[in-house]
């Protein structure tokens, strides 16, 4: 009887959490995603196919991976504009290290992965140090880093694209497992880890506390500066993973890679319900927001809509998300 009662209690707790999620911004957002998919499937029979849906997931993989770290940053009421340039920089640094290698050079391929992750973590840590301990404005810090990282990418590459990497490096962007593309699998793994970190750990609770009220968090004994430092470092690591996936997909490193990616990342996060004011957000919402943007882009492309109008519509969706977030904040105040 005790075992049965415990199972019933667990089921009730699980159902209560699901109901709370549906009542929050995630429920309506997911409903909107489903409705758009239904409409597009009627408008274009090609949309609701396995190949199209897989293609959407692959296309949004780079944005999605980078958006996981960005969600942590924005929940702390920060911002990271350097993510696109960092994606390009990590791929280019790894490509420079592996220049002239053969496809079967496993050691150099693994070294390229390690160097790319180290560069991402290092740049993220530098952003975090400037924001947390030097108390500089996140917008200005990451804007400057965006310019520096892009300039360093161009300097390292001399403005040229670099090709042909070891298979150990390109596997994360070009291979498949059981018919599923690696970029999609890597993105899903990063999202799951991000969700667990944000919702199931002390650090995740501290991130929400810092974003909700920084001074109250400090008085409660939360190491505010350390939490902010870790969030920006985490954003750098996810940007590096995105850079590895992108370089692997293309089997090349472009100096102009991921140009403007930071806007797509922020768009996916905001559409997913994370507040720019901080203190509210979720990894699940970010996932839905990123996929929603991908669905709109691919769906409109299948319908033959002019790409310029696609960009306009995407901007309109972002504007609506920001406006709803602002109205929500005013109601609370």
TrEMBL record:
It is a multi-pass membrane protein. Keywords: Cell membrane, Membrane, Transmembrane, Transmembrane helix. One of its GO terms (cellular component) is plasma membrane. The chain crosses the membrane at residues 25-44, 56-74, 81-100, 106-129, 136-157, 177-198, 227-247, 253-271, 283-302, 308-327. The keyword Cell membrane applies. It is found in: Cell membrane. The keyword Transcription regulation does not apply. InterPro entries: ABC_transp_permease. It holds the Pfam family BPD_transp_2. GO terms for molecular function: transmembrane transporter activity. This is Ribose import permease protein RbsC. It comes from Paraburkholderia humisilvae. The gene is rbsC_13.
């Amino acid at each position: 009887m005790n075992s049965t009662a415990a199972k019933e209690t667990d089921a009730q707790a699980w159902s209560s959490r699901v109901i709370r999620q549906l009542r929050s911004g995630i429920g309506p957002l997911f409903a909107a995603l489903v409705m758009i998919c239904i409409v597009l499937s009627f408008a274009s029979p090609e949309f609701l196919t396995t190949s199209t849906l897989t293609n959407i997931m692959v296309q949004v993989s780079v944005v999605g991976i980078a958006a996981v770290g960005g969600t942590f940053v924005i929940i702390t009421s920060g911002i990271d504009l350097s993510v696109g340039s960092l994606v390009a920089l990590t791929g280019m640094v790894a490509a420079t290290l592996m220049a002239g290698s053969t496809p079967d050079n496993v050691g150099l391929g693994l070294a390229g992965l390690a160097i790319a992750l180290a560069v991402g973590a290092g740049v993220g840590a530098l952003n975090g140090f400037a924001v947390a301990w030097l108390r500089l404005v996140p917008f200005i810090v990451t804007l400057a880093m965006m310019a520096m990282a892009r300039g360093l990418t161009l300097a390292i590459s001399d403005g040229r694209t670099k090709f042909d990497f070891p298979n150990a490096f390109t596997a994360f962007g070009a291979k498949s497992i059981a018919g599923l593309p690696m970029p999609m699998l890597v993105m899903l793994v990063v999202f799951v880890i991000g969700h667990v970190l944000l919702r199931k750990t002390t650090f995740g609770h501290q991130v929400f506390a810092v974003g909700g009220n920084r001074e109250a968090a400090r008085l409660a004994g939360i190491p505010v500066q350390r939490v902010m430092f870790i969030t920006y470092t985490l954003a750098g690591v996810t940007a590096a993973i995105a850079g590895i996936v992108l370089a692997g997909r293309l089997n090349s490193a472009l100096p102009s890679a991921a140009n403007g990616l930071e806007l797509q990342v922020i768009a996916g996060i905001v559409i997913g319900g994370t507040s720019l004011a901080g203190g509210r957000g979720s990894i699940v919402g970010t996932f839905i927001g990123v996929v929603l943007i991908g669905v709109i882009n691919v769906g409109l492309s299948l319908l033959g809509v002019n790409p310029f109008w696609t960009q306009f519509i995407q901007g309109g969706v972002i504007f609506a998300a920001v406006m709803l977030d602002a109205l929500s904040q005013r109601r609370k105040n």
